[in-house]
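TASK: fixed-backbone design
INPUT:
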């Protein structure tokens, strides 16, 4: 679990929350926004809890369409 924040030269902020499985090294969740609110983070984690594997499969398909592997 990791939060990343980048501030651009014009002062805008971009935040990213990454959740990675330590055992399989699979990215389970990437949440990006200008501002990550706790409500949005809880909703994303609950979605992952309700449908395990959905995030991983979706990300793999998305990356595969770009010619990348996850």
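OUTPUT:
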């Amino acid at each position: 679990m990791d939060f990343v924040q980048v501030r651009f030269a014009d002062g805008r902020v971009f935040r990213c929350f990454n959740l990675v499985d330590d055992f399989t090294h699979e990215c389970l969740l990437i949440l990006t926004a200008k501002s990550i609110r706790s409500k949005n983070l809880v909703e994303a984690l609950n979605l992952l809890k309700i449908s395990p594997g959905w995030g991983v499969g979706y990300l793999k398909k998305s990356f595969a369409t770009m010619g990348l592997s996850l």
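COMMENT: The first strand starts at residue 2 and ends at 7.
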